[in-house]
Amino acid sequence: MTQALLEATDVIRHFGGVRAVDGASFHINKGEIFGLIGPNGAGKTTMVNLVTGYYAPTSGEITIDGESVLGVAPHHLASRGLARTFQNLQLFDGQTVLQNVLIGRHLQFKGRRWQMWGTRRREEHEQRIAAFDLLERLGLLDVVDDDVADLPYGQRRRVEVARALAAEPRLLLLDEPTAGMTRKESDEIGALIKSVSQAGVTVLLVDHNVRLVTEVCDRVAVMDWGQVIAEGTPTEVWADPKVQEAYLGVDRKKSGAVIVEEDS
Amino acid sequence: MFDFLTPLQQFTLDTTLITTLLIISVHMSFRTGLFSLAPIGFAAIGAYTTAILVTKEGWPTWTGIASGALLAAMLAAVFAIPVLRLRGIYFALGTVALAQAIVIGIANIDITNGTLGIAGIPNEIETWHLIVILAVVFTFLQLENRSRFGRALAAVRLDERTANGLGINVKWLQFTTFVAGSAIAGLAGALEAHRTTVISPEQYSFAALIPLFTYALIGGNGHWLGPVLTGWFLITLRQQVDFLSTTWEEFMNGVLLIVAMILAPSGLTDPRIARRLGLRRRRERDPRGDRQPADDPVPDADVPTTVPT
Question: Which candidate from A99, A146, A163 shows the least CB-CB separation from B302?
């Protein structure tokens, strides 16, 4: 049996009276691509924020490699191997692509803060090599010097993924990486996610794009109203009547609702 | 060493060098994205610490100056804990309150001689002392600027939340820069006390902060040289218009600030300005050497090609 990298148990997070996450449980195995999907407002992004330490759950438990993440600050979780992208794209505008990626490598610098010139320069050189390798993999080598603010949307998304990958995470959390993308662009992101996974990174993919999730993910959890209503392989999950209900609504005849026939 | 200067010129040079430290102090807080108005308060702490220790307790000048900087840093560390919980305009207001409390406190206790101030502080500061101190500070700033620490500071300024998620300890960075900046402000205050030999509470008013802000904002956050050179330029310019009246300086600062806010809201050292002016054509070299991406150099890749219609 494969080992769980991330385990969420009965996680609850309320914002005032809003139950954003209301008793969600799921686990992510090491090395898999795990999809977290659900209608708008189902609590997916809240879940990502809970896992990465931005929010503290009202109750419940989240562990990574058996260790709790509760009460741990985001930067400590980052040093434990978590990296994420944001739903609404948070790049450091005004800085170049390379600078953005180098900030992502913050934790990979081993040296002390006030190093002497020699070692500092060598380390800086190594970091740049790593950054360039990564940018080449993501097809961003041509825009290394460009201000990220000047890039087209699809490339900005890529830079954000590059910045997260620069941290060499064990678990990469992608919050709607294909939002607003064309089919071709999201296919490229799909291929990218697969190659990242082959490099040994576990991926949590939050997305609305059903086709992408079906193609890419090993397992999927569907959230609705803050709860996980189904978990399994994409095909299993789509066959689940509860999932169809959440996505497509209730069949009015089956649910016994009073049907007012419209005049044709 | 600087004997060729008239005493007035020497005094001007020295106070400019000391002001440079204060500009650096303001710049350091701006760099972390914190709009701190506290440096002037910590300058007062530094000035009064050394003035009291040297004139009343008979301490040696340099021990007094070091104590001034140290006490400013310690107080900053204590104040930072509540103040750094604030954000944006609330942080600015918190630091104003802090600076005001310090100055009002000084004006109302006996040991500082109240509003009368302290006179007869021994002047043992020479120009070369100040140049050495500035050289050390500049070296540290440059080391920081080019390190991952400098990159982390820029990230924190641009987006605290995201920086945090990338493993940057935002709170700690802000704390250390706040304390270091306050120590430099304290040092500047102490040096100034000895150079001018007279201090009184009103010279640490909010008004004294306005020119520093002008320099730091016009200079921008891109590089520490921006605020420093802007400061030197404007201070020199002020000497030239001095014969008119002092209100001209305030007028000039105000106008320059407005012009800068419109034309270069992130200051002159904003990398975007360099890019727009075409000063940054140099492409980043591929550190892996052999694989130069510039096989087919894209002509003017960073200049948007406008299609004439």
Answer: A146
